[in-house]
Amino acid sequence: DFPKTADVVIIGGGVVGTATAYYLAKSGRKNVVLLEKNTVCSGSTGRCGAGIRAQWGLELNCRMALACLDTFEQLDEELGLPTGLNQGGYLLVAYKEKEWEQFKKNVELQHSLGIMTEAFTDVKRAQEICPGVAVDDALGFTYYSRDGHADPFLTTFAFQEAAKRHGAKFYKFTEVTGLKTEGGNIKAVETNHGTIECGSVINCAGAWAQDIAAMAGIKLPNWAERHEILITEPVDPGVCPPMLMSFSGNYYIQQRPHGSIIAGESPAHEPLLGYTSTVHSVASIARTIIKLLPRAKNIRVVRQWAGYYDMTPDAAPILGETDVKNFWHATGFSGHGFMLGPVAGQVMTALLNGDKPPIDPTIMDYRRFERGEKIVEPNVV
Ligand code: FAD
């Protein structure tokens, strides 16, 4: 019983699509349909580090991140299923003078918005937060205890189940193959299972968003950037905080509540695509873990994998309507879409319903790139 019509079609079953389906259905929109070419959470969401932080350097991002933390903190209760939220802080490490100066400015901004980040230079304080961490070469640290991570699968499945309870319909293994427009309006979505006439379409296809946009003649500047990541066997908790991260050091390391350590780094920008893992990455990430956390040296890596960041030229999201009426984007989340997913869903719901969104998304319009504008955030991976 594949649908012939829908009010809203959401393309993509990652955290952004499922959260959008949930908030839209909860707001009373009938006939919300989500299409996923594979399984829910099979894209970037199921491959991510799932870190959530409020430590940003732009007011817009701080405000979005605070809204995300507020949302995540009551999400288990709201959705009726666990998200695996684990707070306890991000410890950010600065190795460069300019970076440390920027961190101090970020903290001033964060404090002005109620994000009570701690900034310090004492390695001993860092070692209280992360026992034995080898950071003698660092210039300074910031730490915010409300930051943390959640489980990307649990979170996405929780959104899916709650959306279904509100009437949204999910169709997996359903690939969008075309979009029909008429007189500058979106009219229908074509799939491998049939065509759905619809009122609105939201492109939540992550690293594939550019292909979806092109189906309606819209050119997005997004591209997929491959990142590798690994997980170790579980060990006693307390090896590291929910997130130990450095932009200049090019690492993020976290310990899951059950004891496994997850770690990753940014790629050396080789033009590689595909999910194949490389020996280079596992060796490089493992070296970083051992350097920072010497007592982790005998812990075994059990799995490594790769996933895509859905990059934009300023590593900031694209939210809003396109030149085709009723065709919307919620894409381009770079390395931060897991934490921003729930708020993106809230913003998209408000936009479609003509309500005031919790965050003004005007600046996140995709036409900013044509105008030569960028959202410049100093605290990005
Ligand atoms: P996705 O989860 O990719 O969902 C898009 C979906 O669209 C996919 O499931 C795909 O199958 C589907 N799709 C594509 N084309 C079609 C089609 N034609 N028809 C139907 N369906 C289609 N973010 C954080 O906030 N914190 C982190 O710590 C973090 N760490 C990361 C670490 C790594 C290694 C990676 C790769 C990413 C990380 N991210 C992190 C980024 C985060 O994973 C993404 O920004 C986020 O998951 C994007 O969610 P999404 O729903 O937009 O995309």
Strand content: 25-35%
Spans of at least 5 consecutive residues with low confidence: none
Q: What's the CATH architecture of the largest domain?
A: 3-Layer(bba) Sandwich
Output the radius of gyration.
21 Å
What is the terminal separation in angstroms?
A: 44 Å
Could you describe the largest sheet, including whether it forms a barrel?
8 strands, mixed
Instruction: Tell me the number of helical segments per DSSP (H or I, 4 or more residues long).
Output: 9
Q: What string gives the helices and strands in order? A: EHEEHHEEHEHEEHEEEEHEEEEHEEEH
CATH topology description of the largest domain: FAD/NAD(P)-binding domain
Q: Tell me, rounded to a whole number, the average pLDDT.
A: 95
Going by CATH, the homologous superfamily of the largest domain would be FAD/NAD(P)-binding domain
Number of domains: 2
By helix and strand content, what is the structural category? alpha+beta
Oligomeric state of the chains in view: single chain
Overall geometric form: globular
Total number of β-strand segments? 19
Supply the CATH class of the largest domain: Alpha Beta
Report the helical percentage: 25-40%
Bound molecules: flavin-adenine dinucleotide
Q: What do these coordinates show?
A:
This protein has 381 residues and is an alpha+beta fold. It folds into 2 domains: 168 residues, FAD/NAD(P)-binding domain, CATH 3.50.50.60; 143 residues, D-Amino Acid Oxidase, subunit A, domain 2 (D-Amino Acid Oxidase, Chain A, domain 2, 2-Layer Sandwich). Helix content is 28%, strand content 27%. The chain has 9 helices and 19 strands. Strands 1, 2, 9, 10, 11, 12, 18 and 19 form an 8-stranded mixed β-sheet that branches. An 8-stranded mixed β-sheet has the order 6-7-5-14-15-16-13-17. Strands 3-8-4 form a 3-stranded antiparallel β-sheet. Strand 14 and strand 15 form a beta hairpin. The longest helix has 17 residues. The structure holds flavin-adenine dinucleotide (FAD). The site of flavin-adenine dinucleotide has 42 residues, from helix 1, strand 13, strand 17 and helix 9.
